[in-house]
Amino acid sequence: MKLKVFLFTLFLAAAQAVMAQVSVNVTLDQDIYLSGESVIATVEITNLTGQSLKLGTQPNWLEFHIESKSETKPYVNRLGEMDMSGEFNLGASMSAKRSIDILPYFEILKSGLYTLSAIIHIDGWEGDFNSPVVSFNVFNGVEVLTFDVGVPPKEN
After folding, report:
1. Which pLDDT score, from 0 to 100, does residue 7 have?
2. pLDDT at 146 exceeding the cut of 60
3. CA–CA separation, 133 vs 64, rounded Å?
4. What whole-number distance in Å separates Cα of residue 67 and Cα of residue 25?
5. Rounded distance, CA 77 to CA 137, Å?
6. 142 phi and psi angles, rounded to 5 deg
7. What pLDDT shows up at residue 12?
8. Collapsing DSSP states into helix, strand and coil, what is residue 49?
9. Residue 135: which pLDDT band, with cuts at 50, 70 and 90?
10. Which of 152, 47, 40 is nearest to 102 (CA)?
11. Which domains, ranges and CATH numbers included, belong to the chain?
């Protein structure tokens, strides 16, 4: 009986060690954006499992989660599905980066503080791999001055 408990504990420890061997990190090129400005998110995946990983076999292998910290409802509406397809192998001890403009896929036009995280799904692996959360602000620009320029219209 003690052997079974020991083997089960060893199995759980090994499973957690493997889960920790794939790291996901998301970064943004800046912390403050104007409303409607492209928000380029770069996801870095590091494979320390000792084996090659096949990524991109499904269109949703990489997903983003965005929350608003300024609104009463924290969930940000999704405007469309990202097609992240494009299969590739990530070798052992290698890193890969993927950048994407997330503005067309999420409703992040209102002023406020937002948080972003990335989630990786790997076929044949239990569970998902989540990145740490990063924060960014969106501000509405201020219209300074507007006036019409050019040739005046012809008078009849």
Report:
1. 46
2. yes
3. 10
4. 17
5. 17
6. -105, 125
7. 46
8. coil
9. very high
10. 40
11. 22-137 (2.60.40.2970)
Q: What does the chain come to in residues?
A: 156
User: What angle (nearest 5°) sits at the alpha carbon of residue 111, between those of residues 147 and 140?
Assistant: 15
Residue tagged 């061997």 (tokens): 21
* 32: Cβ contacts below 8 Å, ≥ 6 apart: 136, 137, 138, 139
- Check residue 124 and report its DSSP letter: T
Does 124 score more than 90 pLDDT?
Answer: no
Helix/strand/coil for 12: helix
Eight-class DSSP state of 133: P
The helix/strand/coil state of 8 is helix
| φ and ψ at residue 19, rounded to 5 degrees | -60, -35
Confidence of residue 153 (pLDDT cuts 50, 70, 90): confident
Q: What pTM, to 2 d.p., does this model score? A: 0.74
